[in-house]
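Sat 14:20. Reprocessing the chain from the morning session after the first attempt stalled halfway. Input below, unchanged.
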Amino acid sequence: MADDQAKKLHIAMFPWLAFGHMIPFLELGKRIAQKGHRISFISTPRNIERLPKIPPELAPWITFVKLPLPRLHNLPENAEATMDVPSHIIPYLKKAHDGLQQPLSHFLQTSAPDWIIHDFAPYWLPPIATKLGISRVFFSIFNAFTWCVLKPPSPSDAQEPENFTVPPKWVPFQTSIAFRFFEAKKIFESFEDNNASGVSDSFRHESVISGAEALAFKTCMEVEGEWLKLLGELHHDNIPHIIPVGLMPPSAPPESGRGDNNKDSSTWDTIVEWLDKQENGSVVYIALGSEIQPSQQDLAELALGLEQSGLPFFWALRKPSGSVELPEGFEERTRGRGIVWTGWAPQLRILSHHSVGGFLTHCGWSSVTEAFMFGRALVLLPFLTDQGLIARFLEEKQAGVEVPRNDLDGSFTSASLAQTLRLVIKDEEGKIYRDKAKAMTAIFGDKDLHSKYIDKFVEFLENHKKKETRENDR
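Finished this time. Tokens:
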């Protein structure tokens, strides 16, 4: 028993201040905790308060560490995550995040974890961890194919956004994965040195890779094996280990579909009453994640496209802020056929319902995973960073169709969206996409498969910690 306890690890986890990052980090932490290792999950107070509750059986193994975010003049009060601010303010959030260097260093020094699993942002972390003898894993929420496209073998291979609008020449196999011009332009802007945080994203990534024991991904060989292999070949000199941790599919909702508390039950009872009245496979579910803030034009085209499609729909819409509003009369004209839901929506329960035939998604990888758990075909409407590449990756697999967009500015029309919705959800020629999505459940819904990936990752953590070497040298 004493030997078993000696093998138990203390692992700190430090995600970037975005829920699209924090949630995968927390899911990974929960799975590591299930193996009996201790987790310290580090973020800011308000972000921690908004995270999902930890299951009671894991609570003894997971500690939340709250580090107050430094106040900046440019940041609104209580803004602690990307979802709290418009995109042009995010560089100031990065600058505030850099102000966590001293309190994080103090925590690491006093708590002495064996590992820290971190994100891309803390470029200042490597020397701190090295000095304290703490091993590091960079856990990237981006897919391996995104890294292969964005990380060329040498800087001379990519100098302009146009170079990323075609499949990279260093990819040795056939692929259509590339950025649209408007996407590549945004990527280059985020990697420029003159952003308001004072530190470019490219420098942050390069810094946190340096000296890391491993680069981990929320993926598996069965989904993107050739890309994982290529990534290892491209970066064999600076990344010792590239480790897929599996897709970490969430637990399926109870068969009864009822919530776990009165509030959840009331919400779901209202939603399921409407869903039960719809025909099997007829409903399109729409959700663009917590980070997307559509422009007035995009929101209007999306709404009018839903109206023109003639399909029943359930739209989980983050309540529009400021002057961004739905088109006048839209809800009245679609009443009975569709629902615009502005409160919290139980996405997994909705996707599991038999009336849902497809999912209009922003292509967040967690949402894609949840959709394929239940074989839902995808209508792809990416907005941020890697989401466009995910859309092209899924189109290659014929498991979804991307809404056509203007290559220069990213705009789309209600007519093209309506046509794509009907193709994927209803039309006979779209059956191939529905069938491919159903076939995806064999991988995305295989909990035993993904549990084995976690087992291998935990085994790596147990066998490669620096602290053990340091203690043996004494």
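The first helix runs from residue 2 to 6.
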